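User: I've been going back and forth on whether these two constructs are worth ordering. Before I decide, could you fold them both?

Assistant: Sure. I'll take them in the order you sent them. The first construct and its structure tokens:
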Amino acid sequence: PTNLARIECHQGERARTLVRVGTNSWALGEGSQGVINGRDIETTAELFSEVVATVWDARSPADLAKFGFGPANLALTFELKDGTRHSLRIGGKSATGYAYASVELDGETWVLELPFALQQFAETFLALPEKQP
């Protein structure tokens, strides 16, 4: 996705920003910490740009907690070069073993099940490292 400018990653009180600086080239945004691999971030971004739900589970659910959503979950915001932003939160696991995710579509929250590859790439390359004592 050549029009992707940055990815904001939030997990609990931790946050970091990944900024595209060129093809397959990413850098940590100001104040962000961690070690990243540009090629892995690029592959993950490409997968998310073509996301297809395994299952759509709920539209405007009254209780996101029943899908395993809470403040410690990984939340991602993809910002395009034109300033458009798309957000996705990863929740708990469904009965089929897929991770729940929530997205905003036309002003409503939708819950879906992510394909395993997306879940694995997000947890491996976008999740924030634990704070070191």
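The second construct, handled the same way:
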Amino acid sequence: MRSTTATRWILAAALLSAATWTTFRSSGAAPIAPHGAQEAPGLARTPETPPPADGRSAQIRQLDAQIKALRDQHKADVEPLQAQIKALNDKFQQQLDALQSQRLALVEQGVPGLKELDAQETSDLDALAAREKDELDKLHARYNDERKAIRDRYQQRRRELEAGHK
């Protein structure tokens, strides 16, 4: 009964998240990265361009305020659900880990040498994961550098356009 209730909560949270994302995405606003996550590459929250000096600046400020309010509301609505999902995941993961450990212990008792083979596999997989992490870190750094160079180049072009416009 508990797992059915938990499953329903997870499903409801997933559906709410999907509905919120679809609604939010159709609004044309930039997506909100999960807490602690980096913003998706190429998706700036607001453009670097300053508002124009004509009458549109009041409209732009109003839109900025609406965007901020919508983002704040989204965050306020989603954070409690994410906390509930995390708590449920942690609870079930602990139970699953305990059961898997018991199963593994029983399997290892029946086959000689299996424990050493599993330890060697774990060691090899850990080494591969460490190498993968290092390579991914280098790749992320390279793309971040390229992203910064592109932003700097366009910011310079904006300044040149502003100087020529005045």
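Notes on the second construct follow. Residues 22-26, 29-44 have pLDDT under 50 and may be disordered. Residues 1 and 114 are 37 Å apart (CA to CA).
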